[in-house]
Design goal:
This protein is an alpha+beta fold and 288 residues long. It is 36% helix and 8% strand. The chain contains twelve helices and eight strands. The chain is globular and about 55 Å long.
Length: 288
């Protein structure tokens, strides 16, 4: 048996095992409030657990980057080989070419690179709440929204129909939802908010002249069928994906432009999933 390297936002069958050990570690050091906030039944390595991991790594004199690599697994008593072989599933979404991972979400790569540049320049202090959603994921989000709000008309105020969301676009024409949207919009000439009533929704300025009403995309089985075999390779089921859908829908109910302090603490500088496996990602120890 092997253990995976876990990154923020990752959905994987090994996440509950890690969470249980992390909770025990936190409780032993009297971080009981933080430990109690971790959802042990979820297979997604979300912001609360990332924040708790950084606390544990700091306590153990490891680099507090929130990445669960060999030294972090070892610190919690696991001795199986740790591998980092393939791009992860993030919040229920498998990797596709043309995406970058930012704050545990896959993002249209050109847009993600622009957002990260503003963060590194300290022009923006928010986090990405929602990024790229393939058509099959958007459909599950739409169906859940219709169920939650009682009608398609009510659901459409919160979620776009499959094929009508810019969150399903790549190549520079995609969209993200962020906190501190006004700060990001004001800081960057490369990013704008196309809808004043949604200050969290961001796109590249190159999409400014594109029509907001996207043409309906034909929904065939190849677009809306969940890639169950690919998910299963990561120990993820359709139920696990639907759990991420419900969490996202809960997030949409809140003021998206308000920064959640816990999410900000769990934010990361992003990584290119296509580079996984090319070079090792050892954790650095600060112990002397």
């Amino acid at each position: 048996m092997t253990l995976p390297v876990l990154r923020p936002g990752q959905t994987h069958g090994a996440v509950p095992k890690f969470k249980r050990a992390l909770v025990e570690e936190l409780q032993s050091r009297n971080h009981r409030e933080l430990a109690s906030a971790i959802r042990l039944d979820s297979k997604t390595y979300g912001p609360t657990t990332v924040r708790a991991t950084k606390r544990m790594q700091h306590n153990r004199q490891l680099e507090p980057d929130g990445i669960v690599g060999e030294k972090t697994w070892r610190a919690l008593g696991f001795h199986e080989p740790v591998v980092d072989e393939r791009p992860p599933v993030l919040h229920g979404v498998p990797f596709e070419p043309g995406l970058l991972a930012v704050d545990g979400r896959y993002v249209d790569k050109p847009l993600g690179q622009t957002i990260l540049a503003e963060r590194r320049a300290r022009h923006w202090h928010g986090v990405v709440n929602s990024g790229y959603r393939p058509a099959w994921y958007q459909k599950r989000l739409w169906d859940e929204a219709v169920k939650k709000y009682g009608s398609e008309q009510a659901a459409s105020k919160w979620v776009a129909r499959p094929g009508r969301s810019r969150h399903g676009r790549k190549g520079g024409s995609g969209a993200v939802d962020v906190t501190n949207g006004a700060e990001l919009d004001g800081a960057s000439s490369g990013i704008f908010r196309p809808m004043d009533w949604e200050p969290w929704h961001m796109q590249l300025t190159g999409t400014r002249d594109m029509p907001e009403e996207l043409p309906e995309t034909r929904e065939g089985p190849e677009l809306t069928e969940v890639p169950e075999e690919e998910l299963a390779e990561h120990g993820v089921t359709v139920d696990d994906v639907d759990a991420t859908v419900r969490v996202l829908l809960e997030r949409l109910d809140r003021p998206n432009d308000e920064t959640d302090e816990g999410m900000r603490e769990a934010a990361d500088d992003g990584f290119d999933p296509e580079a996984i496996g090319a070079t090792p990602t050892p954790e650095r120890s600060t112990a002397t």
